[in-house]
Amino acid sequence: MRKLLRSFWHFITTPVRFITRVIQRIKTSFKQGSQSIASYFKDEELDDTPIAESLSATIENPKALLPHLNALRKHLFRAVIAIVIATAISFLFVHNILSFLAAPMTGGMEELVAIDVTENVGTVMRVTLLSGFTIALPYMIFELWLFIAPALRVRSRIKGLIAIPTAIFLFVGGMAFAFFIMLPTALPFLFNFMGLSTQPRPSSYYNFVTLIMFWIGITFEFPLVIYLLANLGLITSKTLRSQWRLAMIVIAVLAAAITPTVDPVNMGLVMAPMIILYFISIGLASIAERGRLNKQKEALSEN
Prior knowledge:
The protein is an all-alpha fold. It has helices at about 1-10, 15-40, 50-60, 65-90, 95-100, 120-150, 155-190, 200-220, 220-230, 235-240, 245-260, 265-300.
């Protein structure tokens, strides 16, 4: 009778025990995650060994790289999983994405005419993958920060964490500039150049739009990169000011490489924001230099 009662009690309390175990595991995981996050903001004694000595020691003992490679593998795996999930989500809304990207044309998607049998499939896959990559980009940058953070001091870790939303904002801002300003100006000119009407194909149109948006988004990251380099003392505002002529040539080459067409109008549209960003970068580099010099003076005064 006791065994029967125990079995009955065990049966009716199974859901409660299951929920309790789940709650305990969630609490344990949350505690471990909190401790892991907190460890990124604690001062730790870092190895200040010169890079040359570290490289020679690594060559002599390659096994020392295994923990770092294993950590990198985990971060890359999570980043790939994020891309897969974001791509799957993008595929569910790919028709809306295609319609949105076709908005700069007067007739929208109805203006596009496919010629090849597999053209529509290839276009959908391309747009889906690029949309998934764009959506997963913030998490990918965060995983990169998690991998690099243990080698940085707390102040640098906080700066890197603050830089993540800044980088995302600049990238999205660049894409928005390309979509809402550049494309509405460039497409009418290209479709009716010299009075010749154009019948756009899905592959060529979406290739043109996505390339412009992606690379303009990347170029908008330039001020942030310059600020970080100036903060590290690797570049100065004086150098940027003195080499502005060379910078204009480099910008022209990059604009020619980014622009899918060879006409000077689109090349000029790409060059204009890059030139403005270059001069903004000079100001940011100057700000970073002043901050770095102030920190050095404070450190000398304390010593």
